[in-house]
Design brief:
The structure holds two protein chains of two kinds.
Chain A: H1 19-41, H2 46-54, E1 58-60, E2 65-69, E3 75-77, H3 78-91, E4 95-98, E5 104-109, H4 114-123, E6 140-141, H5 156-166, E7 181-184, E8 198-204, E9 210-216, E10 228-235, H6 239-253, H7 264-286, H8 289-292, H9 296-303, H10 317-327, H11 329-338, E11 339-341, E12 347-352, E13 363-365, H12 366-379, E14 383-386, E15 392-398, H13 402-411, E16 426-427, H14 442-451, H15 455-461, E17 466-469, E18 483-490, E19 493-500, E20 512-513, E21 518-519, H16 520-537, H17 544-551, H18 554-562
Parallel strand pairs in A: 6-7, 7-8, 16-17, 17-18
Antiparallel strand pairs in A: 1-2, 2-5, 3-14, 4-5, 4-13, 8-9, 9-10, 11-12, 12-15, 14-15, 18-19, 19-20, 19-21
Chain B: E1 14-21, E2 27-32, E3 35-37, E4 46-47, H1 48-60, H2 62-65, E5 67-75, H3 87-94, H4 104-111
Antiparallel strand pairs in B: 1-2, 1-4, 1-5, 2-3
The chains are: A alpha+beta, B alpha+beta.
Bound molecules: protoporphyrin IX containing FE and iron/sulfur cluster (SF4).
The site of iron/sulfur cluster has 13 residues of chain A, from loops.
GO molecular function (chain A): 4 iron, 4 sulfur cluster binding; heme binding; metal ion binding; oxidoreductase activity
Domain Nitrite/Sulfite reductase ferredoxin-like (chain A): 65-123, 360-410
Organism (chain A): Gluconacetobacter aggeris
């Protein structure tokens, strides 16, 4: 069926831009170039310029400007990764930071260089639009999309449809507050769907099409809430119309008088699930549905602009992988912790840990980015995914080639065998970079990952998620950490509050505060005592989270505070 | 930009004035009127009862000086060299604690 095979120029794993997209981006860069020139000349004041630069992803942070670049649904191609490496080398300090929203941040950008950087990004179909402000932000997606064995529907096509719908949406440019959407197509939630303004889970419909579970009103920040389950049967055809109705209701009724009460989660709590649902249903019934209808032909047309990998592994690929695992225990361990089962025979997905022991979670140097781009070209159809855990993924690797991938990663300090383990810590930039921070997140992550560096020890401790935020905005997802660490400010000094029992997944829950905040130098020891207490009390193959849920906080409280 | 945490000024204390450079965003400290340094060691120390007027004056000419977000930072009276009293401002002054190469002092050395 040659007519369904996409042109070879299309990137595998994400949508291929057309000339209209490219012309728009080029215009937008020139518009910003002009705004920057006017700011430097003084004809635009900082107050006038700030919203304009934020619309282009440029923040003024603690030490310099920070540029946040969108990676739609977390998928990059090798050419884009090389461009990011080039920007890191040329305009920044030779590294970039991958974030929990599957974006990339550069921490040392100069205002005067920004138009050139944006022009370079536009050359590879990238931009920083809607990475800031009260609009619909980058839609995040399952890092194993289109590859995972447990996936029911590849959510990237719908993520792209949502991207097109939300980008420059005229009604939704000034929402009461920022708006974050995540989408998955697997019953195992890897996107924290229940902690987003809207979380979607795609699944097959009884009629053979696609339908969605819809969660709404989840969020972190100072009011952490697990989203409510609004629908379990939203038909694909109504996806845009229904989301349009959901966001319209928020736009109309969401609070604009108090920034702390402006997110949709507060509205959903205030109206109640039923109250919100009724308003959405009324809007949905009244709107021009034809305009937002998503017919199967449109979905097919978008799908056709995604390159698809030609998956053909040799029959003995699994046997070759088995042999390599038996021959090398370190490789075997890495395969156990850092891979995910693939839907296609002979394939596997590999997670590249950006969490070396003692390292900065999510940072990658330009040399590492180039190497990963090369590996993607050679072994994974040129496609790279960013995870919300701040790691990277090669989605489609042949099992007989996995050992070569691992060796190359190991040579670049990219093969820590710690995915889902205690070394796989989420940390926001914290007080080392962020102007809103109370305390530093990164040094705590570095000390913890160094303390628990041993891969044997990490495997013994088993699955555990530690997440660190430098302030209550919760960019480091601490509320959803099995162990959450929140930086607080006490008279200008850093303290850390621990929460236990959070979970981002299908069993989502908000962590509970354990007790008084601890000084920086006591925090890492306190975590070690929590882990010790867990190892003493766990039964069978309970995770830390399960032991906590079974036994409650008291014994952990004693472990932290009794000895203090 | 100024932050409520930086306005905790004690009577009898002293402060320095800081801002970001407009073009590259880098942190600078006022040495004297119209002159700014990336090194807090060079900063002019001003008694807290004069600081508000000095900040207002510096803020008034920030566009001409190529600066944004002028504000004052209290420093430790006991320290030998200007040292902010809050950890936030110490990190601004001395650089991110996680990249020793990126501290203002190390950069100054590298370019000297
Ligand atoms: C460094 C500049 C940053 C600033 C100024 C900033 C600001 C904020 C603010 C104000 C909030 C609270 C929003 C609300 O509750 O309405 C927030 C939440 C959040 N941010 Fe950031 N953030 C920054 C960096 C990051 C980074 C690096 C990441 C990814 C690692 C990130 C991901 C998130 C997430 C996931 C949330 C919580 C989810 C939510 O409720 O929206 N942010 N951020
Ligand atoms: S949680 Fe706070 S400190 Fe961390 S990045 Fe977000 S705003 Fe900054």
């Amino acid at each position: 069926m040659p007519d369904t095979i996409p042109a070879p120029a299309l990137p595998v794993g994400h949508y291929g831009y057309d000339q209209v997209d490219r012309a728009f981006l080029a215009d937008r860069v020139e518009q910003f170039r002009d705004q920057v020139a006017r700011r430097i000349a003084g004809t635009l004041s900082e107050d006038e310029f700030k919203p304009l630069r934020l619309m282009n992803g440029l923040y003024l942070q603690l030490h310099a400007y920070m540029l946040r670049i969108a990676i739609p649904y977390g998928v990059l191609d090798s050419r884009q990764m090389r461009e990011l490496a080039h920007i890191a080398r040329t305009y920044d300090r030779d590294y970039g930071h991958f974030t929990t929203r599957q974006n990339l941040q550069f921490n040392w950008i100069k205002l005067e260089d920004t138009p050139d950087i944006l022009a370079r990004l536009a050359d590879v179909d990238m931009h920083a639009i809607q990475t800031s402000g009260n609009c619909i932000r980058n839609v995040t997606c399952d890092q194993f999309a289109g590859a995972a064995k447990d996936e029911l529907v590849d959510p990237r096509v719908h993520a792209e449809i949502l991207r097109q719908w939300s980008t420059l949406h005229p009604e939704f440019t000034f929402l009461p507050r920022k708006f974050k959407i995540a989408i998955s197509g697997s019953p195992n939630d890897r996107v924290a769907a229940r902690f987003h303004d809207i979380g979607l889970v795609a699944k097959p419909a009884p009629d053979g099409g696609t339908q969605f579970d819809v969660f709404v009103g989840g969020g972190m920040g100072r009011t952490p809430i697990v989203g409510v389950h609004l629908r379990d049967d939203l038909p694909e055809e109504d996806l845009l119309a229904y989301l349009e109705a959901m966001v319209r209701v928020y736009n109309e009724y969401g609070r604009r008088d108090n920034i702390y009460k402006a997110r949709i989660k507060i509205l959903v709590q205030a109206l109640g699930t039923e109250g919100y649902r009724q308003k959405v249903d009324a809007e949905f019934a009244a709107m021009n549905r034809a305009r937002y209808r998503l017919p199967p032909e449109t979905v097919a047309a978008i799908r056709a602009r995604f390159g698809t990998p030609d998956l053909h592994a040799p029959d003995d690929a699994p046997a070759q992988l088995d042999r390599a695992r038996r021959a090398e225990p370190a490789f075997d361990r890495w395969v156990r912790t850092n891979t995910h089962p693939h839907r296609a025979p002979g394939y596997i997905s590999a997670v590249i840990s950006l969490k070396p022991a003692g390292g900065i979670p999510g940072d990658a140097t330009s040399a590492q980015m180039d190497l990963i781009a090369d590996l993607a070209d050679r072994y994974a159809f040129g496609e790279i995914r960013v995870t919300h855990m701040q790691n990277l993924v090669l989605g489609h690797v042949r099992q007989d080639e996995l050992h070569a991938v691992w060796q190359a990663l190991r040579g670049a300090d990219l093969a820590s065998a710690n995915i889902g383990l205690i070394g796989d810590i989420i940390a926001c930039p914290g007080l080392d970079y962020c102007s809103l921070a109370n305390a530093r997140s990164i040094p705590i992550a570095q000390k913890l990952s160094a303390r628990f560096a041993s891969p044997e020890l990490q495997e013994t401790i088993g699955p555990i998620e530690i997440k660190i935020s430098g302030c209550i905005n919760a960019c480091g997802h601490h509320h959803a950490g099995h162990i959450g660490i929140l930086g607080v400010d006490k008279k200008g000094e850093e303290y850390f509050q621990l929460t236990l029992g959070g979970s981002p997944g299908s069993d989502a829950s908000v962590g509970q505060i354990l007790g008084p905040a601890l000084p920086e130098d006591a925090t890492v020891d306190a975590i070690a005592r929590l882990v010790d207490a867990y190892l003493v009390h766990r039964t069978g193959d309970e995770r830390f989270l399960d032991t906590y849920r079974r036994l409650g906080a008291t014994l952990f409280k004693d472990a932290v505070y009794a000895t203090a | 930009m100024s932050d409520v945490r930086n306005n905790r000024r004690e009577a009898g204390g002293s402060s320095v004035i800081t801002a970001n450079r407009l073009l590259d965003g880098r942190i600078v400290w006022q040495v004297e009127e119209g002159t700014w340094s990336t090194l807090i060691d060079d900063a002019r120390i001003i008694p807290n009862d004069e600081i508000e007027a000095a900040i207002a004056h510096a803020a008034g000419r920030q566009q001409a000086d190529g600066l944004v977000g002028v504000y004052g930072v209290q420093v430790d009276a006991e320290a030998a060299t200007p040292t902010p009293v809050t950890v936030r401002e110490r990190i601004r002054a001395f650089g991110p604690t996680v990249h020793p190469d990126f501290t203002p002092a190390a950069e100054f050395e590298a370019h000297a």
